């Protein structure tokens, strides 16, 4: 009926879907949306129809995108214990420390627990890596990326 190939229709639908989802993610204003689609070279009537489509559906699109986002576990509490083995039958004097961590997480309204065990040197390395990652989040480059992701 359209006298257009199936690939052209598919690409058109994918482009329209991308335009609406990205615009809804960023909650851009009417003028920004109009500026974005004006570059595409459509007629004024089609631009008005696209704007109306965006305004009518952006809240619904945002709610659907929120439902599709993965539900990651969140932190609830942490228990830890330091165990030290001072001697064994074969070795009279040895020091073998171990840190046991029980991490309580909330996921989908239910609590789960993960038990982890490591030696203190590995734990110190992990702490340094996490502190380094937090430090990198304070750089201007990462702030710009995070701001654009929201």
Automatic annotation (TrEMBL):
| Signal sequence, renumbered to the chain | none
Give the residues annotated as coiled coil.
none
Membrane-crossing segments per the record: none
Xref: InterPro entries: COMM, Commd2
Pfam (any one): COMM_domain
* Residue ranges of every copy of the COMM domain listed in the record: 74-141
What PANTHER family does the annotation carry?
COMM DOMAIN CONTAINING PROTEIN 2, COMM DOMAIN-CONTAINING PROTEIN 2
Descriptive protein name: COMD2 protein
Name the gene behind this protein. Commd2
């Amino acid at each position: 009926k359209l006298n257009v190939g199936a690939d052209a229709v598919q690409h058109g639908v994918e482009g329209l879907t991308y335009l609406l989802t990205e615009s809804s993610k960023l909650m851009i204003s009417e003028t920004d949306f109009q500026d974005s689609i004006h570059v595409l070279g459509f007629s004024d009537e089609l631009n008005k129809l696209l704007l109306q489509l965006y305004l009518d559906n952006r809240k619904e699109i945002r709610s659907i995108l929120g439902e599709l986002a993965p539900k990651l576990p969140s932190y609830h509490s942490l228990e830890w214990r330091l165990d030290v083995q001072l001697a064994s039958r074969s070795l009279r004097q040895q020091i073998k420390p171990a840190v046991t961590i029980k991490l309580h997480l909330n996921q989908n309204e239910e609590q789960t627990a993960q038990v982890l065990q490591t030696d203190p040197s590995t734990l110190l390395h992990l702490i340094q890596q996490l502190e380094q990652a937090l430090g990198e989040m304070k750089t201007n480059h990462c702030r710009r990326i995070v701001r654009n992701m929201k």
